[in-house]
Amino acid sequence: MKLEKLSKGRFKKYIIILVIISIVGIIFINKSKAKYRVTQSIQIVNGTVNYKVPDLNVLALYKQKTEGNTSDNNYESITDVPTGKYVVNTDKSYCTIVGNDTQLKNIPMEYKDGRVSISINKKGTKCYVYLDIDTKQSTTELLASLKINSTSEGCPAYEDAPSITTIEDTKSLLCKGKDDFGDTYYYRGAVTNNWVKLGNFYWRIIRFNGNGSIRLIYSGNGKAETSGTGTQLSSTSMYSSSTSNARYVIYNNSIIKGVLNSWYDTNLKTTYGSIMDGTVGFCNDADYGSNDSTALYYKPFDRISTNKKPTLKCGTPTTNLYTTSGGTKGNQSLTNPIGLVTADEVAFAGETWNKFNSGYYLYTNSEYWTMSPWYTNGLNGYYATVIIVEAYGSLYGHYVDNTETGVRPVINLKSDTIFKGNGTQESPYVVVI
């Protein structure tokens, strides 16, 4: 290689570059016109460093045809570096040295902006690069890629408490609403593209919260479950230990809170705690509403059963919105950012009071708790009850000490969470840590 004599000024200018180049040679391949390309000499300023860039003799490129399938027959050889969203499959890609067929798996490779970069340190290196379709996207990108349905296409009106008088069991909708943090986008009806996999656990997206986080409800361990007790934790639970006082409908006083905390500590806290959003909270609206001669009803019952106007805003959030510390809203009383679905969220998902619905995505053919109170029997506060989702998919209620009702945890993932996948049961959105 021809050397160039450097002046003192120019030598200082290049000295940092020279130190880096002396460590590793980096070859960039952009828009290669042949499957196998002999890399041309790369002119560099060498100065006093006795260094020569290694030769990359052969490059072979292969592009994945179908996302998620990494079998050899799902790759096609290509002559151009593709544009779009791809990532190097480091498990399949490898290099060899001329005269030695041993596969070298520790060669750093990267695809970015239509360019493949390979860091090599031996002459005569041959590399075989496999590019996978990259479906990773941020929460913002995910929401932007989804179709937001208008009211005329079956969504309730865009307002605080829209009228919902009928079930939705056929359409698959993503609707726009309002919560305590701004605009929220919730799934409604016979939805099939809201699956998420977090570690070994499967979830369904309930909605994109107003602060940008994503609310999920549990739906399987090791398998994406749509019905039966597999959609719940392994055992049923009482909501609270006694019906003898109205305070037993309050989440902080409940047994079920302890069940959820214990499961979270064991299964989510260590690995996934950093991506959980506890500031958006869970609504346990225990404000009193109407009454009659036999019962004192809580506001969730009035909204859903009597008035048919659910809301995604939490009444009296300073006491009823259960959040962790560090946020700007809610009671900040939670140790762990985990809760239950609300009856209002179930209504937005496709249900109304006491109507059978086996077509919407929250139907599981097995009953489970919400965290929305139903009624007590008036002045003495006996017979504390909480709303459940029945096995028929309908909203009704149980005494809080019922031992046969299932538990489906609800969590919120932070707005900067990264996903890959398609959101289907077969190819769910996989959380990337």
Briefly characterize the structure.
This protein is α+β, with helices and mostly antiparallel strands. It has helices spanning 8-23, 139-145, 255-267, 269-272, 299-306, 317-320, 343-349; strands at residues 25-30, 56-64, 75-78, 86-88, 94-97, 100-104, 109-112, 115-120, 125-133, 137-138, 172-179, 182-189, 195-198, 201-208, 214-221, 282-283, 288-291, 296-298, 321-322, 368-373, 375-376, 385-389, 395-399, 410-413, 418-420, 429-432.
What does this structure look like?
The protein has helices spanning 8-23, 139-145, 255-267, 269-272, 299-306, 317-320, 343-349, and strands at residues 25-30, 56-64, 75-78, 86-88, 94-97, 100-104, 109-112, 115-120, 125-133, 137-138, 172-179, 182-189, 195-198, 201-208, 214-221, 282-283, 288-291, 296-298, 321-322, 368-373, 375-376, 385-389, 395-399, 410-413, 418-420, 429-432. With 433 residues, it is α+β, with helices and mostly antiparallel strands. The chain has 2 domains: 8-133, no CATH class; 137-432, no CATH class. The strands form 6 sheets. Strands 10, 11, 12, 13, 14, 15, 24, 25 and 26 form a 9-stranded mixed β-sheet that branches. Strands 2, 3, 4, 5, 6 and 9 form a 6-stranded mixed β-sheet that branches. The longest helix is centred in the N-terminal third of the chain and has 16 residues, at 8-23. The protein is elongated and about 90 Å long.
User: Poorly predicted ranges (pLDDT <50, ≥5 residues)?
Assistant: 1-24, 32-53
Task: Determine Rg (CA atoms, Å).
Answer: 29 Å
What is the domain total for the residues? 2
Which structural class do you get from the secondary structure elements?
A: alpha+beta
Number of helices: 7
Number of DSSP strands?
26
User: How large a portion of the residues is in β-strands, by DSSP E?
Assistant: 25-35%
* Helix residue percentage: 10-25%
Q: What would the principal axes of the Cα set say about the shape?
A: elongated
Compute the average pLDDT. Answer: 87
Kindly report how far apart the N and C termini lie: 45 Å
